[in-house]
Amino acid sequence: MTVQQDTDTTTTSRRLYRTMARIRQFEVAASKLMATGRLPGTLHVSIGQEAVAAGVCDVLRRDDHITTTHRGHGHCLAKGGEPKAMMAELLGRETGYCGGRSGSMHIADPAAGILGANAIVGAGIPIALGGAFAAARQGRGGVAVAFFGEGAVAQGVFHESLNLAALWKLPIVFVCENNQYVELTPVSVHLAAKHVADHAAPYGIPGARGDGNDVTAVRRAAAEAVGRAREGGGPSLLECLTYRWHGHFEGDPQRYRDAAEVAEWKAADPLKRLAATVSGDPSQAAGFTAIEDAARREMADAVAAAEADPVASAGSITAHVYRRPVPGGALA
Amino acid sequence: MSTVKYWQAVNTALHEELERDESVHLFGEDVGMPGGPFAATRGLRERFGEWRVRDTPISESTFTGMAVGAAMAGLRPIAEVMYFDFITLAMDQLVNQAAKMSYMSDGAFAVPLTVRTLCGGHRGSGPQHSQSLEGWLAAVPGLKVVWGGTPADAKGLLKAAVRDDDPVIVIESLSLWTRRGEVPDDPDHVVPIGAGLIRRPGDDVTLVCWGDTVPSALEAAEALAARGVGAEVLDLRTLSPVDEALILRSLDKTGRLVVVQDAQGPCSVGSEVIRLAATDGFASLRAPAAQVCPPFAPVPFAPDLERAYYPGPDDVVSAALGTIEGRDA
């Protein structure tokens, strides 16, 4: 029994590490592409925040729904998004998830239950509510997770959505990835409450706040909240405290924080912290290194494949504006 | 055929669509237990249950967003935004989300969403419960916009919207709410989105109208007939996309255009119709087009002010005769 438990723990740790390593390597690759002028537009990476995406999505089924944010690559990868189609989208290729028409902030995949990343702060929260409503109606025990940053907590839709989800007992988990900076200002400029999780109590739903860089703790909290939602126990709010290593956007001069603070949080690297738990076991440690190498190769391959793909053609500009264009109307 | 009031036609359409397709769900403020603020949803909750027909908190942005997500996840939601003015609160979800989801996902997601909303003009409802904002929505690629001017069209367009795979905004008129009309009984009778209708044929001038202004355009046509002027009344019915071919055919016949609208003139559906006449229809025009519309001001409350604000049949007659004077000169 003990042996079995250990095996399970090992398997889970390896899986979580793999998810985090894939996110890290995807983001590093995207960041390099932008730094070298090969990636157009705007890019927001989640390096340092990988444990939240990995821990939460580890307890989700493929048919569960998520919505995410402008900083959403990690959640999409953890939920089953394909890195090559994602990278191709970032690079404006016609093979990208959105045919090159949307870019980094709009990865969406019905097959993986990704109801879209979103470039409007907070907008994904009510959309996830719709995923939860549909799940409740479809009766297969599905749940929805809304990922959002602490900045979205100041938006009306956050409060409206908690209220409605609580009233209707919808199967949804609100996951706040609190990276402590709302664009270019600290969270203290934005939120009157001391903690994001404090907003659960007024709506009568469970709220929890924890270390968002401890993937095992995130997974444990998510398992409890998701399990409750699946069993009809209604919504929960999770606040995961974390930190983004890079700026709000790639190229952000980051005048709002000092290097010492960044260094302190880099020391709390969620990947290193998980790796440290197996440092006494050389074979496991070697396994983690191999996982990281494989993730680096996977993302290099994704970049190479995407760069070799054709760029989106101007002929596609008006495609899919409507699912069913009106005969004789515009775009028919 | 049955003769029913406008609101009853809406109510029947909702009953029929909820009955026909289990994926249809309706939510909004007061739509459940009270049966709708104006009775459009009467009897639905009792028949279909709380999950199919549900009262929401006053949270237009959130319940519209929930409808977007539910549509993406396989349902066919109908969200009711009580007054047209309140749609401003749901604009992020309509403009940035619903309208763009198919496009942004390269066609992977469809958003089969219907949003019903009621225009409260002509009832003393005041500046924040009376507006005609159809031009805002018609300007957004990805949305379809319809507005029935008769009970039959209110029913047929709503049914078409529910069955459509794109987000459709269905505007309804409180000013027409208790008007009666003939309505087809066939539960599969739909009014195709994108098709305007010639409500009254005529050779001398085309009166383009929609929604609230359909009755006054018809009344004006009657008065014009008494003066020997044949007015063709063209009800747009769909405001995005407008039936350009029908407008151009009518102009080809009459050579004169009067647009009758309750929305303020600038950047409106009517100005878009005049744009069409000035471009593709230019060779047909025998006189400058006219736009009969309220002043560029909010809708006033006091009954006398509101009457003065909205264009009436007399204004339409004057404008039509104005386009014709040149012919006789």
Characterization of this structure:
- The complex is a heterodimer of chains A (332) and B (329).
- With 332 residues, chain A is α/β, with parallel strands linked by helices.
- Chain A has a single domain, classed as Thiamin diphosphate (ThDP)-binding fold, Pyr/PP domains (Rossmann fold, 3-Layer(aba) Sandwich), CATH 3.40.50.
- Chain A is 43% helix and 9% strand.
- Chain A has helices at 2-35, 50-57, 73-78, 83-90, 124-138, 156-168, 215-230, 259-266, 270-276, 282-308; strands at residues 65-67, 144-149, 172-178, 181-182, 185-186, 207-211, 236-241.
- The model of chain A has no long low-confidence stretch (mean pLDDT 95).
- With 329 residues, chain B is an alpha/beta fold.
- Chain B folds into two domains: 2-183, 3-Layer(aba) Sandwich (Rossmann fold); 197-328, Rossmann fold, CATH 3.40.50.920.
- Chain B contains twelve helices and 14 strands.
- In chain B, strands 3-2-4-5-7-6-12 form a seven-stranded mixed β-sheet, with helices on both faces. A five-stranded mixed β-sheet of chain B has the order 9-11-10-13-14, sandwiched between helices. A two-stranded antiparallel sheet of chain B has the order 1-8.
- The chains are: A alpha/beta (332), B alpha/beta (329).
- At the A-B interface, helix 5 and helix 6 of A face helix 3, helix 4 and helix 5 of B.
Hey, roughly how much beta strand do the residues of chain B contain?
A: 15-25%
Shape of chain B: globular
Q: Give the name of the CATH superfamily of chain A.
A: Thiamin diphosphate (ThDP)-binding fold, Pyr/PP domains
| Total number of helices of chain B | 12
Number of strands of chain B: 14
Structure described in brief:
The complex is a heterodimer of chains A (332) and B (329). Chain A has helices spanning 2-35, 50-57, 73-78, 83-90, 124-138, 156-168, 215-230, 259-266, 270-276, 282-308, and strands spanning 65-67, 144-149, 172-178, 181-182, 185-186, 207-211, 236-241.
